[in-house]
Write a structure and sequence with these properties.
By secondary structure, the chain is an alpha/beta fold. Helices cover 16% and strands 20% of the residues. Helix 3 links the parallel strand 4 and strand 5. It binds zinc ion (ZN). The site of zinc ion has 7 residues, from helix 1.
Length: 309
């Protein structure tokens, strides 16, 4: 049995974002606190006792407090059921939470060498001492099985694969610490329970649905998919920023080449948007955009939602 807990569903900044007065953020601060959401991350487990995070958001501390499954077990002076963190990119909202995991508990970071090089190039991550925190490289198109603290297999098989995307925005115009360009900036994951064969896909960042993405996701029991913006020029149109979704490596929900249209008719049993920016009008429950998305079968998870596959 594969358990998934949505720790957070929002894109960078969360909902509400500290400096944002957009309609969604304002509503979340006032009459609709239920719109509040922390930055995107999920936790997975095959046995219910040992958990792995997929990405570690800046809101991790708050997310762990809110998630009983991830609390220290009763009677233990120092303990965490978290055995590892799998990173799918090097953006701040995927890696900054690692800094909240610095209190001496051993765990393993699994990431593409491109992302590991970002951690290595930023000395602040040295607070995660090599003695306690292993950093293991993962390769695209090669499955791996994270292990438990005693070295035994977790029962979770993970297949990383390259998806259309962009490098971390704070490195734009800079030399990447890994020294060269290429794949690995943005990866998707297929996460499979070895005992049951049940699986899901995780693509919190994806710039386009190409034929490769389509053929992988077709027929999946569950997908978590990039829901950053409703339309590509949303931030510009709302005077919230000067970048399009594409500039940031994110596909729009709407439009002929958007996620809703591109992933229609692929026999995907359950489709959940993740990494949803506070500018996205589909977050408003009574909006026309929300209705279009839900009519197409898409769901918007509340933080803390647990799914058993
Ligand atoms: Zn906002």
């Amino acid at each position: 049995m594969l358990r998934v807990v949505v720790l957070g569903a929002a894109a960078g900044g969360g909902v509400p974002q500290w400096n944002c007065g957009c309609p969604v953020c304002q509503a979340a601060r006032t009459e609709h606190p239920e719109l509040g959401s922390t930055q995107a991350s999920i936790a997975i487990s095959a046995d219910g006792d040992h958990w792995f995070l997929i990405n570690a958001s800046p809101d991790l501390r708050q997310q762990l407090i809110a998630t009983p499954q991830l609390h220290p077990r009763a009677g233990k002076l120092r303990h965490s059921p978290i055995c590892g963190v799998i990173l799918t990119n090097g953006e701040i909202d995927a890696i900054a939470g690692l800094l909240s995991m610095r209190e001496g508990w051993p765990f393993t970071i699994y990431a593409h060498p491109k992302v590991l090089s970002i951690l290595e190039a930023n000395s602040i991550f040295k607070v995660l001492s090599e003695k306690n925190v292993r950093r293991l490289p993962i390769e695209v198109d090669k499955t791996f099985e994270p292990d438990l603290p005693d070295g035994s297999p977790s029962g979770i098989e993970i297949l990383p694969f390259a998806v259309p995307g962009k490098g971390a925005w704070y490195l734009e115009g800079e030399v990447h610490p890994s020294g060269k360009d290429g794949a690995g900036n943005t990866i998707g994951l297929r996460v499979r329970d070895k005992a049951t064969g049940r699986y899901f896909y995780f693509l919190a960042a994806c710039a386009a649905v190409d034929d490769d993405v389509k053929s992988r996701l077709a027929g999946a029991p569950l997908i978590f998919f990039d829901g950053t913006v409703w339309r590509d020029d949303e931030l510009i149109a709302a005077s919230l920023g000067n970048k399009t979704g594409q500039d940031m490596g994110h596909i729009a929900m709407s439009g002929d080449h958007g996620a809703i249209q591109s992933l229609a008719g692929l026999d995907i049993a359950r489709k959940i948007f993740l990494h949803i920016n506070n500018s996205n009008p589909a977050l408003l429950i009574d909006s026309a955009e929300r209705e279009i998305a839900e009519r197409a079968g898409w769901q918007f998870p509340a933080d803390g939602t647990e799914i058993v596959l």
